[in-house]
Fold each of these.
Amino acid sequence: MPFEIQMPHVGESVTEAVIGKWLKQPGDRIEKYEPIVEVVTDKVAMEVPAPATGELTKIIADEGETITMGSVIAEMAPDDAGAETSAAKPARPEAPQVTESSSSAIAATPAPTGLRVASPDRVGSMITGANVGPTGGAFQDTSLGAPSAATVSRVEQSAMASPAITRLSPVVQKLLDQHGIDPTNITGTGVGGRITRSDVQRYIDSAGAKQVQGSTVAGEVAGTVMKPSPVRRMIADHMSHSFREIPHAWSAVEVDVSGIMACRTANRENVQNTNGLNLTYLPFTLAVTATALRSNPLLNSSWRDDGILQYDSVNVGIAVAGKGGLVVPVVRDADNKSVLDLSRELSGLVERAREGRLSLEDVSGGTFTLNNTGALGSVLGGAIINHPQAAILTTEAIVKRPVVVTKDSVDSVEIRPVMNICLSFDHRVIDGAEASAFLQHVKRGIEQVSAATPLE
Amino acid sequence: MSQMTVIEAVRDAIRGEMRADPNIFIMGEDVAYRGGVFLATDGLVKEFGDARVMDTPLAESSLAGIALGAAVNGMRPIAEIQFADFVWPAINQVVGEAARVRYGTNGRKFAPLTVRVPYGGGVRGGLYHSQSIEVLFAHTPGLKVVAPSTPYDAKGLLISAIRDDDPVIFLEHKKTYRLVRGEVPDEPYTEPIGKADVKREGGDITVITYGLMVHYVLQAAEELARADGVNALVMDLRTLRPLDRESICAAARHTGKVLVVQEDTPAVSVSSEVLAIIAEEAFFDLDAPVMRFGPPELPAMPFSPVQEAAYMPSPEKILAAMRRLAAM
């Protein structure tokens, strides 16, 4: 008896995953808990363990396919057929096949699984001219010939066209959201040009077909269409979703970082020797940002249909270029941690992120995101908010600049290390005033650090 | 395995169950020596005698009441109402009493009663031999209401009804009796009460129906596939109470476009409930407004053949409704 292997539920907010790479093939032996497939969710990549020991018999979900949690991805033959686990259950018996009658031109789509399908020879057929009178009497019904195409005209599109239906049906809206499709790209074939579910499906299928071909696109400038990796597609969907839904606004300030540089220089060697940590600028900016978030709670929130959710905790995600693409590990309760604590925690997270070993726990629960784009030399940026958060802050490259410094009412020009910090914020939640207040708070916090500032 | 009509399947089910269980007996108007006006019980009095196949006076109230009393006292009666149109005097015994036996005695008593009710029109029966009365019973908690459309389902569901420990209203569409023929296993078997099934697979639109209309819808679906290349999934409810919510919603989600076809007038009917279930549970998978098709809201089936044809849903009228839905 084959067992179905389901995509396990891995987290409350995670509803879909993309099959990354099958680590086992049909015919392979698998041990219970041994990873059999890599999957990618919108938060993390992970491995699905085998629910039992036995042989993998069939792969149902192909690499690159998007599947919902709980759906069947493979079948296996366990050694002990009685060892049913919560993740594996007996496969449903095959539904009896309905053979198409000659009058049907197109193969019917099978009924959804789980439905009882009547065997065709048990459906019965009507007897022409049967005696159907009330008491076995004399009424022979001859009205039941096959309806002829001549007597029933096809519904004319023009007759149905008015009034035009421009609203999207619930299932169409859902599909468009899932795939991040702009409905204006789709030609509707329903009444009055209405977009139907099959119109969307056709669009998705043809878009998929184009990617798979990996060939040049006719009628456009020559080029090669690259099939995106599952992670790439996930990032693409996430970014499109965020940018489409959130009205982004931007603001930036310039920060003098000579204090942080002095503090780092003063402590670097000691931290390396005592704690084995490489002290970077990130824990400083993270500590200051977290404190500013606590004081400016609108920045630490999410827009929802039922209101603005202000988070109780300050959990800051750190954007890291991981092995397979962008990942955002989260530092929890960052406002309660010292620079040294943060340095220790970041060191582990970043290392795991670069090696692609982050757990779902590592990447969930973020309420705000910090991105150190300056590491790549950027001096100004307009980041896309990490949906559903309300804002994202980038710290840009530190450059030496001539700065006007005022001491005892006397202005002079000094060469100072300066860094831009750039904020992208959800304008539904935050106005320019709150954004500026937050940025000033961060700026003051960074500029107050000096060589004497304690790290603990 | 034999080819049988619906009436033959009904008779086969009753005969087999009566042979197996001496507590089963039949009562009804003309069921014994006449064999029933449709000959559903033809020949049974010869085999089982008139103590187990009993003719009754034209008194549906007594018929249902006596059967109920026997059921509560350990028998398994099958009461035949000659025509659904004359079930009204029995309503008090069925709706007012039988439905409440288990509930009213806190589970101490139960009533394994089967009431066979030939119903439906399109048989030139006019105002008094054509009615669809299913909604009156389907509305009543405590009753099970079964309405098969094929010989196979008629036998399997009737055996389930007879073996069921609670009252089952078993609706037999009169026109299907000799109109529909199909394969039926010779041995007894049961089909589950409360489970709908798919009579035709398809991925473009979903048509949900029951009774005679199953066959009209199937005929229209073949034409729709042939002429338009549109494939309809056809679901046969088979049980009207309890409705199979899970299968109804799965069928609705499969295509996102749903039409309910019934011979009964649509207002406050089985189709109302089916569409309410879909609106409650499958709204976000709908791709078009739900549709239904039935006869005009008139007090009864007309007698004039021309008017009857105008009133009754037909494969052609159903096909037009299916095309409207497919085009949405």
Note: Chain A touches chain B through 55 residues (CB under 8 Å).
Amino acid sequence: MVLPSVLQPLAGGQSFLTAPADTAVTVEGVLDEVTGEYPALSRRLRDETGAIRRYVNIYVNGNEIRRLQGLATEVSPGGEVLIIQSVAGG
Amino acid sequence: MGGMATAESYVLAIGTKKGLWLATSPDRKDWSLSGPHFLMSEVPSIGIDTRDGRTRILVGVRSEHWGPTVFHSDDLGETWNEPEQGAIRFPEGTDAALERVWQIHPDAESRPGVVWAGCEPISVWKSTDGGEHFELNRGLWDHPHRGEWGAGYGGAAAHSIVVDHTGEKVHVAMSTGGVYRSLDGGSSWEPRNKGISAYFMPDPNPEFGQCVHKIAADSAVDGRLYAQNHHGVYRSDDDAENWESIADGLPADFGFVMLTHPGRAGTAWVIPLKADGERIPPEGRLAVHRTDDAGATWKRLDAGLPEKEFNSVLRDAACVDTAEPAGVYFGTRGGSVYASADEGEHFAEVASHLPDVLCVRASAVSGAALPGAALSGSAVSASAAGA
């Protein structure tokens, strides 16, 4: 999973986090795995109900998951999950 | 970075739409401004907790992207800490998520460690560890009226928490919903809005549903409360059983601010706005109004304020300190912050051209040096890295 620079301090300074998988896993599974030891990072991406925050966009292999199956979108082994914040605000 | 201030200094924390600024002063007249902290995140709530021999600044921070959280600093903004699991989290089963922390209220001196929070969605929280972890008040969360509470323009939130000296009597105000009172420390709650108008509803005198903008307790008269309503300024002398208008003598009865004196009976401040539909100072002439007789009469205070000002002052963008005479502070949505060291008789501008001011809190700080605040990172997360 690729993190924007602003979130990297919450993952020990890492820009990439990896989740071991032999078969396809869901985005939710990837998030659970890679943010498990970084609860502050997890809260930035999802609220207490598990929902992705409104202005957080998650891409799997270049496709935004809200246009796919949301958190149930599958990620193949070796696939890339990209976190990007929306262009929003004033 | 900024200079050092010594013991018996004052700190003024300014939460804005785009970050937190800290001002310090040795005398409440000359202020040094530093910041921003949490740049590009809004800071709608601040609590300065000087109990237990330390000064802890608690801030509710909300990033449009990354959500809300609570940070605290025990070194006057030099470093910020965020509890690993988050200070405020809706428990499983509530199917709710924290939207914004509207109020952080350190409890009485006699109850060190106890901090209350009021949040959106409408909820009240209590911490017993100095604001590091809060527990949801179930009595209010499970209240049967919940489904009928609404959202004001700024959101649906509990924004005022008033706790008496016993800790058993707690008043909460919410927009919209009105005033609720607990006599058992927060276990159970009843609406207490008799006399407060809800002119915008079919029944203008409902049991609940009022849009009370702010309440504050008279610190020297047990059972006396003041309320700034969505049109209407009120006082209660019987723990909110009955409310009566004290708006006569004010240029307008709309506004958001209600402040009370830290130690003297009958003194309160409001900052009127013209009307619901015209949220500007009446005639564009910004003024604070103070009563010293519990609302029987009001005195206009505008010395040092601009001749013309069309920005409003939000409910928590005003505060008093506990010095003698009391200091009065407020900030506008135009980013100006004013301070008075003499109960509002004379104001001086502390800051200008900041983002919209959402919250200010001031306190004397004894026995500590005030470091100049460094420019911290550009988001909630970057600030956390400095923790």
Note: Helices of chain B lie at 138-141, 380-385.
